[in-house]
Amino acid sequence: MSAASASPFLANIPSPPQGVWYIGPIPLRAYALCIIAGIVLAVWISNRRWIARGGREGTVVDVAVWAVPFGLIGGRLYHVATDWYKYFGPDKNPLDALKVWEGGLGIWGAVALGAVGAWIGCRQRGVPLPAFADTVAPGLVLAQAVGRLGNWFNQELYGGPTTVPWGLEIYRRIDPETGLADPIAGVAVDPTPITVVHPTFLYELVWNVGVFLLVLWADRKFRMGHGRVFALYVAGYTAGRVWIEMMRSDEATHILGIRINVFTSLLVFLAAVIYLLVVRGKREDPALLAGKPYPEDLPSTVEPKSDESKSEESKSGGPNSGDSKTTEDEAAPDSKDSNTEPPGETSPDQDSSGSDEDEASSAPSDKDAKSQS
């Protein structure tokens, strides 16, 4: 009798029959699509928050160009380092470590190396990294929630057998061409589950959504800054990861009989809480978030005039030269001598028209000046 038939509940959660579809020879992997959807959602939310805090549009994308690749590499490196036996043990193929599409991204490596990429991007844009981290924190944890759907498609990251009504049904997947077992790229041909387990991926998904709401509320209420929003996200996520990790039944590296990610979660949680308690200060000045100017932000210069326009101006005594005498006369109507320039020196308008200088110097009164003009 299978675990499913032994369960008194009928409302179990079915697993997808497959996680990979083919468009011709091109595989369309649900895990990769979920990761991409999470990244797009995180960038969109972060961009809106960045602009609301005083930053400019486009900065988040510029920094993400560095942070996302670094994060993916870091996440994979952490997974391979902690689960090395899956790739370097007996009868294992080390090249499988490059198959990111089959799952296996450690959040700790993703955050650590992703922060390095974000630091590079922030330096290039001239914006403070702590303020940027506070801005992207809610989007990051929501992206993690979306990414957990990829684990559902891959039938991974689940717990032990259970009889709860929300138990997850696990199917046997096979390669249709060879008939061999293929848990990742295979297809479930038999709808009868081989076991019903705790959907720990779903527990983490729901927990992450809760952390997302908590971080948004705290940031809005207390106007946190200097990396404290990011620290709250880390503390909230790791608090849930500890108990969820202890429920998982998939293979993992153990220390003293405890999964290594439990120890990592506890250490990171303590570091985040200490940061929250120690760091103080008001939110960063919005002016700091503007960053370095883009080329289009630089003040425009007057375009050089062509030789033809210069020639026209020289003939007419410069721009608005026709009004210069009238303005000069109106400004000093009682002056007996409108030419106040020292001998031997001329103004730009006088230099451009010698006849004007002669007329102005011989004008005894405003009346005579008007008659000459």
UniProtKB/TrEMBL annotation:
Residues 288-373 are annotated as: Disordered. GO terms for molecular function: phosphatidylglycerol-prolipoprotein diacylglyceryl transferase activity. The keyword Membrane applies. It is an enzyme of class 2 (transferase). It is a multi-pass membrane protein. The keyword Transmembrane applies. Signal peptide: none annotated. It is found in: Cell membrane. Keywords: Cell membrane, Membrane, Transferase, Transmembrane, Transmembrane helix. Pathway: Protein modification; lipoprotein biosynthesis (diacylglyceryl transfer). Its main location: membrane. The chain crosses the membrane at residues 28-47, 59-80, 100-120, 127-147, 201-218, 225-244, 256-278. A 1,2-diacyl-sn-glycero-3-phospho-(1'-sn-glycerol) binds at R148. Its EC number is 2.5.1.145. Residues 304-315, 325-339 have a biased composition (Basic and acidic residues). Belongs to the Lgt family. Catalyzes the transfer of the diacylglyceryl group from phosphatidylglycerol to the sulfhydryl group of the N-terminal cysteine of a prolipoprotein, the first step in the formation of mature lipoproteins. NCBIfam families: lgt. This is Phosphatidylglycerol--prolipoprotein diacylglyceryl transferase. It comes from Saccharopolyspora ipomoeae. The gene is lgt.
